[in-house]
Amino acid sequence: MQSIIFIGLDVHKATISVAVAQGERGGEVRHWGTILHRPDDVRKLVEKLRTGGRKLHFCYEAGPCGYGLHRQLLEMGQDCIVVAPSLIPVKAGDRVKTDRGDAIMLAKLHRAGDLTAVWMPDTAHEAMRDLVRARATAIRVSGKARQHLQGFLLRHGRIYPGKKGWTVAYRRWLTTVRFQHPAQQIVLQDYIDAVADAEARVARLTAQIAELLPEWKLAPVVEAVQAMRGVAFIVAVTVAAEVGDFHRFYSPRQLMAYLGLTPSEHSRGSSQRRGGITKAGNSLARRALIEGAWSYRMQARVTRSGTGLGVRLPRARLRPRRRRTDSPSSR
To answer: Which domains does the chain have, with CATH numbers?
Structure first.
């Protein structure tokens, strides 16, 4: 009979801590050792563990090291899952956390079947998701650059007289702001340049997403999602990149739970207490959907078709403007 062993990997940038659990219930669980996080060392580890025709089942937590280890193990014909860290059962009284202990815990839980695997994107999907997340990072940098500029102006009493900032009139007003000391004028120009560079970066990444979208296998999904009001190009491509395969969810409720959009609840006995949304899922996709929901409240607008950039044109008039004359009856 072919023996089965479960291997828990605590993966770090330079090293991997390895623990082994025998396949039978109540079997031995031990710390195998620590190896370097390199493809050659991982290959040697697999060759040593599968001696005697043993069947291997690997697992490790999803983290900053990505899915390279998972893809290497699959190419070698081994079974491997990447575990959702937030869904790992943890003992309430456990206050000791080490690499050795984490690897042993993963091996035990993998043998018991108590681990939840995350959805694994292919290389093309992961690349597209990285591009979408890079744009989201650029948006945050742009917001910070604007905040720094406005804070500097407020600190020196330069208040924009208009109602809304970052319009064409606001940017024109920025060119008229002057300071007596040359150092402050240099700081102002540097903040303005930082805002311009951040906005140019956002526009450049947006154009690159639109250029690569037709080659992506989820391009039809992105186009279909944009049929809903309030969902433009960026919201659609963000949701598609972050969620991935929608078929892995059995119901809309499960999808909303993954996104953290379900209400929290703490009920006991006859008392029921519900709070706001859990915010326990994918934050980027959740924020995009919430922005789309807020836009859904507004009246439908005509958008520029065929650009894929989600650029909105001025609102189309539903009724022709009445021509005003000088006759008393028209007043």
So the answer is: 4-112 (3.30.420.10), 123-214 (no CATH), 219-296 (no CATH)
